[in-house]
């Protein structure tokens, strides 16, 4: 089934463009596409601009070194880079053995709690992984899952909107969840 999903993804034209992270131009392209977002992520976790810049630099250095291991069929470049960044941030927090910088009062409670415990925002990483996995399943299954589970809409309302019986919607949910589990397993997501 995994091969079928990969073939479908390629045939639909949704595969990410090839980026050769072993070349300077490939790293430059990846940085232009994802560098600012990685920097904001690192800054939110570390609370220090210089440390965040260093973390992003280390992320791209590790991506360059491991460029031959990047597989666009398993995860998008964005997801792969954020996984590397997460590891870099965890290493930095462990290495420094320091307490995170106090968060200014205008920051929201979630950021304050996250920095206080010194961890990386796992919920953001999970949402990116789920978003990537949802793009790899069929349209009917994706709509059923997003509308009922993620948006919390009643089955009857979604079924009426899709002009299908509620039983069909339930079937799409069942098979959609199975497909999502397979895709997430292929992406290496465990839990």
Automatic annotation (TrEMBL):
Record bears the keyword DNA-binding: yes
Transmembrane regions: none
Biased composition (Basic residues): 1-10
Residues of the signal peptide: none
Pfam families: Sigma70_r2, Sigma70_r4
Keyword DNA-binding: yes
Residue intervals of the RNA polymerase sigma-70 region domain: 31-99, 133-181
Stretches the record annotates as Disordered: 1-20
Keywords from the UniProt entry: DNA-binding, Sigma factor, Transcription, Transcription regulation
Similarity-based family: Belongs to the sigma-70 factor family. ECF subfamily.
Record-given protein name: Sigma-70 family RNA polymerase sigma factor
């Amino acid at each position: 089934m995994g091969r079928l999903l990969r073939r479908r993804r390629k045939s639909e034209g949704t595969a990410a463009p090839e980026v050769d992270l072993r070349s300077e131009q490939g790293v430059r392209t990846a940085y232009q596409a994802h560098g600012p977002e990685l920097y904001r992520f690192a800054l939110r976790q570390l609370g220090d601009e210089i440390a965040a810049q260093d973390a992003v630099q280390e992320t791209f250095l590790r991506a360059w070194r491991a460029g031959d291991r990047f597989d666009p069929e398993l995860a998008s470049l964005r997801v792969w880079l954020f996984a590397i960044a997460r590891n870099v941030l965890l290493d930095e927090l462990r290495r420094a053995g320091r307490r995170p910088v106090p968060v200014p009062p205008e920051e929201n409670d979630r950021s304050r709690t996250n920095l206080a415990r010194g961890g990386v925002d796992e919920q953001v990483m999970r949402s990116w992984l789920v978003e990537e996995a949802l793009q790899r399943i069929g349209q009917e299954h994706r709509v059923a899952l997003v509308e009922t589970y993620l948006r919390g809409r009643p089955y009857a309302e979604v079924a009426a909107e899709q002009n299908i019986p509620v039983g069909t919607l339930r079937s799409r949910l069942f098979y959609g969840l199975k497909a999502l589990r397979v895709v997430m397993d292929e992406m290496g997501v465990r839990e």
